[in-house]
Amino acid sequence: MNIDVMTIQDMTVRVIMIVLLAGVVGFDREMRHKPAGTKTHILVGLGSAVFTMMSIYFYIKFAGKTQVDPSRIAAQIVTGIGFLGAGTIIQFGGSVIGLTTAASLWSVAGIGVAVGAGNYYLAALSTAVIMVVFMVINKLGYLLENKVINRMRKKKAKKK
Fold it and tell me: How many domains is the chain partitioned into structurally?
């Protein structure tokens, strides 16, 4: 079955690629016990990839027969993911929880669009950047938190 622009193999590679890339980001969120984990990230990325592949399909299939703007579906992905991400954000006391998870869902949707369009390099690079950001910022946060805790302990010890 050829849909004019993508073979079954093309579609299969794109689906496998987004499952792997979104799964990596989701796994990090899940290991940190965040509201959206592996399954949610995979489903968001996969949905974005499917919508993007269908957008390309519609553009090719109906070219010259009607005005089809393939970017309209991608634009709706951004809107829809914004709504989904908002559901992961919770105000708790004086702080807001879930912003990073919402941002990771939004980013995975972008990765899904890239995979759906066949831009594997951009998708893989974006996934790598997300993971580096998570690792570096988490490590810095841990180091700073320990430094503050140690200072507080030293101050307590001096008072005694």
Answer: 1
How far, in Å, are 10, 94, 135, 157 from residue 147 at the CA level? 50, 23, 18, 15
Q: Would 130 be classed as within a structural domain?
A: no
Token couple for 108? 């995975």
Integer Cα distance of 42 and 21 in angstroms: 8
**What is the C-alpha R_g of the chain?**
21
Whether the CB-CB separation of 129 and 108 falls below 8 Å is answered with: no
Q: How far apart are CA 31 and CA 28, in angstroms?
A: 5
Tokens of 44: 């968001």
**Whole-number Å distance between alpha carbons of 44 and 77:** 10
pTM: 0.73
Q: Which two tokens stand for residue 20?
A: 């792997």
Amino acid at 66: T
Structural domain range at position 23: 8-124
- CB proximity list for 143: less than 8 A, separation 6 or greater: none
Per-residue pLDDT reduced to its tens digit, 43-92 = 999 999 998 888 888 888 777 777 777 778 878 888 888 887 788 788 77
